[in-house]
Structures are given as structure tokens and as C-alpha cells.
Amino acid sequence: MPKSKIKIEVEPIGKRFFIDEPANCLKSIQDAGIEIKSVCGGKGTCGKCRIMFMNGSANEPNEQELKILSKEEIEHGVRLACQHEFTEDTTIYIPASSLSEEQKLQVIGQERDIKIEPVVNKYYLKLERATLKDVKADFNRIKDSLKSTHSITVDNIDFRVLREMPKILRENNWEITVSVRNKEIILIEGKDTTDKSYGIAVDLGTTKIAVLLVDLLSGKTIDKKGVMNPQISFGEDVMSRIDFASEDDMKLKQIQQVVIDAINEAIVELCNKNGLKVSEILEMTLVGNTAMHHLFLGLPVRQLGLSPFPALTNDSIDLKAREVGINIATGGYIYLMPVVAGFIGSDHIAMILATGLYNMEGNCIGIDIGTNTEIALISQSKLYSVSTASGPAFEGAHIRYGMRAAPGAIERVIIDPQTCVPKIQTIDDKDPVGICGSGILDAIAELLKANIIDKRGKFKLDSGCICKDNLGNLQYVLLPSYYEERINNNQDCGVKNKQDMTQKDTAQNSDTDMEELKKSLCPCDDLISINQKDIVEIQLAKGAMRTGIEILLENAKIDFKDIDKIIIAGAFGSYIDTKNVINIGMFPNVPLKKISQVGNAASIGAKMALISKTQRKIAEDIGRMDNYLELTVFPTFSDHFALSVSFPSPEEII
What we know:
Blueprint: E1 6-11, E2 15-19, E3 23-24, H1 25-31, E4 50-53, H2 63-68, H3 71-75, E5 78-80, E6 85-86, E7 90-93, E8 120-126, H4 138-150, E9 156-157, H5 159-171, E10 175-181, E11 184-190, E12 198-204, E13 208-215, E14 221-228, H6 238-245, H7 249-273, E15 281-288, H8 290-297, E16 317-320, E17 333-336, H9 346-355, E18 364-368, E19 373-379, E20 382-388, H10 391-394, E21 409-415, E22 422-426, E23 434-435, H11 437-449, E24 467-468, E25 474-477, H12 480-488, H13 511-520, E26 529-531, H14 532-556, E27 565-569, H15 571-575, H16 578-583, E28 595-599, H17 601-611, H18 613-625, E29 626-628, H19 637-645
Parallel strand pairs: 1-7, 9-11, 12-15, 15-17, 18-27, 20-29, 21-23, 27-28
Antiparallel strand pairs: 1-2, 3-6, 4-5, 4-7, 8-10, 10-11, 12-13, 13-14, 16-17, 18-19, 19-20, 21-22, 24-25, 25-26
């Protein structure tokens, strides 16, 4: 038996690589094409190559690490990569501070023109100072001035603002600007700052966090930042995080705090970059799936992991930012759109809001492809939604050489059906180190088109395009150099011989013939490739998505030919080739002109709610009108899924 390799899984990149024998962690990571920092060249003195060993697999820290790392870091499994070896199958987490390259994150999408209706308004006041003849209380003086000068009535003032008020008044010669939200003063600043009003919109995804810095007066996005959701270190999928947070209150607090810290850091970075103070951020909106919504608020999530998966509330939430530890203006608020159900969150409502799906005429579908995929259908003015667990495979999870969209990831694939040779494009034109979602989808579609796999997803042994690893597993190599080398050396195995090779139907060959063909395949190990298990993962993912669409259509009593428009949203949805989406059967065959890609619509929906009271009201109305359908209760669910897993026949491919 061949010696088994050591498997290393790297989060939050989502990359997996293999080593033949125990090896230094830093060197192994770098050899795998992951650009981890190491200023000292592996001596353990710079502390830049921090990694976290997950699942309790960390070795005891050595003397050098005790000097560099904090006690808390050591307790959480943080070590210096240069000081340890990988000796067994291991999962590690590399923090953003240790990575030299940022991942390709889709932060923003197509915007719509809307009327700006600020939730927070600023008013400049030049007050009469207090005297022995006029001893009116400071707050009452401000209230009276607001009413007489601006016809504004306030009923309340944030307690911390009240505490800060006397100093600001007297240090600024009684010239101040007050920020008012729903008849409450949430901030007092010295002098006239009415020309400066800022907010933050956040799309809190399972994998990534998109943060927008917005001018509340003009409605323009000043700057944006995408960061990985650090909760990945507690579980790649939602259910894993729910299980972790449900163990005890300390773990719930822990998984909440890491995402609060990540958002705070992003806000600080955006403010510093644009010459602002964090205290100038007056308002924040946040959207996310129901689990991310609850974990952000520190709410119990155990019920989200148990049928029937109810949310704690379907109402929108307004709370002081400081209640959850978000650092913005003293009395600033966070507004959270309502969630619909356990697996339909406020990010879905934000997508529907941003795309205008809720008031479209005809039959229109909106699909937000992410770690979980939500699908909405508007038909005869009725809105229906479903959730499918399809995203992880398209983000590289469970794919042998899969990874998220980072430099070096293969993102485009074209296969020459005559020679087997692929043409690939990588992110930032770096040397290939893995394959991300759009590349995986392209590769599967091209394998079908080139007749290398059949409609069941099985490799065709007589295609002349496949090889095998050291365990005999079939695979298709995604590196052009592999085929070019064999063509140059006149080797037929693993490369089609256009003169001698005739296409046969695998099903007509005997088992003996198949075994002989398999034995003749070229060996190809440790090369970026697609194997049979990878194809199955994509079949399950695209099958789940197609099933969701079919159930929505069945429920609305319409056919796919009746659909007028399909909107694809989400980070993954921005980069996919829509023709290949049809070619693998994720969508039925429809005219491409009916499909539009809008980018990260959830972040745009969050921004719309940030700058407009009316859009908040619309979002809440969407939450009430949306009818959630639980797929598994439909009698036809299993039939739809069984049919949806298969790929189209060659003659159906466009």
C-alpha cells in the first residue's frame, strides 16, 4: 500500500494541501503557495508567522514562543509556524495579520438611486451662555434652542452624551452641533460640523465581512473594506458555529467577540485612511443570515440548530452600538433589518431590497449565492423564499485542491476537447496554487463539453484525458504544463491521440476493458486537479440549488419558461460564467439575456437602510410579505433533487 500523505487544511483561505512526511510548518505553508509573513527568515524572532492550531492539536510552546506570544494566544492554540512541524492531519487558521496577500472579496454591488432621508440629523446651535440672571439647565437650553431655531423637538439625551455635554459647551464658547435621532440627542460636538455626517453599513457573511463607510449627507460610499469572518476558526459552516456557541455562555461570548473585534478594526482602518474619527460615525446598519445576526448580538442560537429552526424575533432591532461593543459615536445606534426564518436572514431581505425584486412585474428570481444560498421568487405580487446549503463547495470547501478566491487561485478554465489541454487564468496572474469557486464551475462545465465526464458525472476512461493518483483515484489535471510535457515526449497516456483515439461509450465496454484502460492511465499525483469526489460535491451543491428553484416554481404553479428575469447576487455570483451555470444544469436552459449579475447586493441593501428611513420601512415590509418555504416538507423534494444532481446531456450544452 502506498504511504498515506499528511493533509493540512488552511483557514480562512479554505485551501488544502498534502505533504509526504513531517515538515516545518512555515516551509510547508510557503511551498503550498500561501504567502505567509516571515521577516526573520524562520528564526522565531519577528513573530509574524502566527498560526492557530485548531481542534486542540497545538504542541507545547517552546522558549522562543513564550517570549513572543501572549498567555491568551498560547491558550488558544496560537504558535509560530517556523517553530513547529506538521506531523499528522491538521487544520490551522492563519490570521489576516500573518498573510502577505488579501483574498479577493466582493464588497459592493450595483447601486440604485434613492432619496436620502437621514435617520440622524445635525443642527448647529449658538447658545446664550449661562449667567446668574439666566441659570437655565444646559440640556434645557439646548432643547429650547433646537425648538426655536430649527423647529425640532427632542425628548431625551443619551446619558453618556449628557455627561460629556458641559465640557464641550464651555470649551467651544457655547457653539455646538447636536446630532438628533428619533427625538434623542446622540452626540454633541464643538463648533459647526453640520457638513460632516458619516455612517457604516455592514454585510456580516459566514465567510466574509463587507464594511462600507458612507457619507450620510450625499449617500455616497467613501470607502469600503472586506475582511474574512474570524468565526471560521470555530467552524467553516453555520451549523458548526451554532454547535460551538451552544456549549456554554463563555463560548457564545467568545464567538461573538471575535466578530465585534473584526468590525471595530475595519471601522478604525477606514476612518484612519479617510481622516475621520471613529466618534464621528453616527449610525450603523448590519445584515447577515439568521445565525450571524444572533451571534453578533450574543443571542442564544441552540434553537437555530434544531427543527423547526425558529429565530428569536422576526422584527427589526435598534440598539445602542456600545451594548454589543461596537465603537462609534457616543450615543450611536445599530439598526438590524428583520430576519425571516432560521435559514433566511436579513442579508436576504437586503438583497431583495437592493435589487428591487419585491416590486418587479412578472415572474422574477433572485439568487444570493454564498456559503448558504437563498433564492427568492416574486410571482403575481407574492414573494416566496427558500434556503439551500450549496455554497461551501463553490467556495472551495470539500474540494481537494479547492480554496477561496485568493491570489494564485485558478478562476477560469477552458479545455481543448481535441487535446485535453486546459487554458487557465489565476487571480492576480500568480502561479496556480489551487482552484476557487468560479474555476471549479468552469472546469466541470468544460469536462462535460469535452466529453471527459458523462451526465452522471463519471469520468470516461476512454476519453484519453484522465490520469490517476498514487492510490488509483481518477482525476483531470488542471495544469497545461502536464499535458504539454507529454505531447512533447510523444506520450499518449493522459493525452488524446487525435489520429489513433476513437471515442467510445464507456457503458459499452466490459469491466475487463475498463480495468485494462484504468491500468494504462498515466500517474499524476500532487498536481492541481479535479477528481471524482470533487465532481460529486459540485453535483450535490448545484443539485440543491436547482431543487430550490424547482420547488419555488412548483409552489407558484409556473414553469421555468415563464420566468422573465434571473438576478444573481453574492461574491461567488459576481465571477461565475452564466453560460456554464446553465451548462452544468444549475439553472434550466434560458436565454442569457434574462440573467443579470449584481455583485454583493446585501451590502447595498444595508447601505440603503443606512441612508433612508423609507428604505428601512420597505425592508420591514419585505420581511412581512416574504413567505418562507421549507424544502424538505415538499413531497416532491426527493424527486427534484435526484433529477437535479445529474448534468445535462452533451446535446443540451450551449
